[in-house]
Give the backbone structure.
Amino acid sequence: MTTPQVEQQSPPRDNIPKQRLTIQTRRLTKVFPGGTRAVDALDLEIEDGEFFGLLGPNGAGKTTTIGMLTTRVVPTSGEMWIAGINVRTLQQEVKRIIGVVTQFNTLDRRLTAWENLYHHGRYFGLSRSDSRREATHVLELVRLEERRNSLVDALSGGMQQRLLIGRALVHRPEVLFLDEPTTGIDPQGRLALWDILLQLHREGQTILLTTHYMEEAERLCQRVAIMDHGKILAMGSPDELKGSVGAETIMTLQAEPITPAFIAALKGISGVHSVEEGPRGLQVFAGDSRRLIPQIAETALAQDVELSDISVSTPTLETVFMRLTGRELRD
Amino acid sequence: MAFIQPFMAMMERDLRVLRRDLVPFLVRTAMQPFLFVFVFTYVQPKIGAGAPGFQDVLVPGLIASTVIFQGIQAVAIPLVMEFSQTREIEDRVMAPLPVWGIAAQKMTFAFLQSLLVVLVVFPLVYIVPVNTPHLDISPLVLVTIIPLGALLSASMGLLIGTAVNPRQITLVFALIVMPLTFLGAVYYPWSQLEAIRWLQVITLLNPLVYLSEGLRGALTPQYGHMNYVAVYAGLIVCCVGCTWGGVHMFAKRVLS
């Protein structure tokens, strides 16, 4: 039932090309029955201790990627290793060294907060006393000491999410997988969760996170891969990715009509790098914006274009995504 | 055997939950058979109604139906919820245990719970009737049929729990539980169905018939019972079929 479908290719632990890689995939592909190519020849290398983010809209293939890395989705082709262990062939060994927080609240509703942690530790082979100690320690880490004896349903959404993350840490995994961990959590709860994740990262925890919130990827991740339609479109640190836009400011114009002559005239303004039509309006990528706004207004007037709004922003990962795909991150 | 540790840890968890819910568990298990024997073997004889000997017929029948019902109530329904609403199963699957091991653990605990159910129901159906049931116990048959019945309950619970989605739960009661119990040779010996031959043949598809008849042979053979070869063969075929189907469906549901 869980037999791998291709013969095992290469390496056990010592054959891995780069020693410090915690996660590595080679041309990892998943085609679901019906033909949806959810993940398409994905090559990923995540180093030990890295906080790595997969950023993309719903349906980009992020969850399927995590599903494969955590043994729950059987890949169609390709290979993957976690800490040098082949995920396809040595599933139980891999499960022992990973912590997984899925998109769903999978807490044990019939147990208390502390018992959720304790029994999780026991599933992963901790002795009774070790599991008791770890459960108490983790409860402090996720700031739920005071709700120790509360049943899951008595906890708020943010608390449950913290408990989910805590539970994934009880057996001290080498990699922590977080699939959209802050979806549906209030802003305050999100900040509390970010604090915990950043603390874990400082302590050396390797983390792979998926998100469709660009703020989350920017704030937390050292490296981000922007994903769409099962492929990685760009990868780098948030600063590198934003730098790839090649502009300090982006001015978004609401103008009517948008004529080729108007676009050409805008491109002619000194300081403007490029002009593109985006989903939110006409986008002008430029250097310093302050002196440009009057010139843009004048150009519009000269071209007989009605300008109803100019908004100025700096590049974000959202901008990067939009430039790569022509779409917004959140549809 | 690296699997034994997580397997036992899941048993430990289930035991904690059962201990906590022991009273509701016992009440839920005992209520239906209690009311049944109370009305038909206590109230009815007292008011001059009811059939003589019915208390004897009910002993194997009610034990069998309660054991099977237990598998649906304590295994199938929670499993349906764990797969859909609570998604708890997705966490269990992340434990270092193959998927079939998780299914086997669910069945093992259900098996033990079913044995507990026998211990609860047996005294009830024996003590409550006005006229104490006349039992003629065959120990060897009894100690082999009861574990087979518990296994049948556990495997049916697994199969139904993995094959059904939450919206269909009420249908499960109408289409599976009700016909199974009413036509499971619970309230009459199967051999007496000779008068309605077509029904006698059709109910051979009902796994509960083999358990009721096996227990009838073990406890009240004076009323006649299905041939033991058929009883054991029927039980074994149903256990193997449901286990195979249940584990198969379980794996299909958790892996994509």
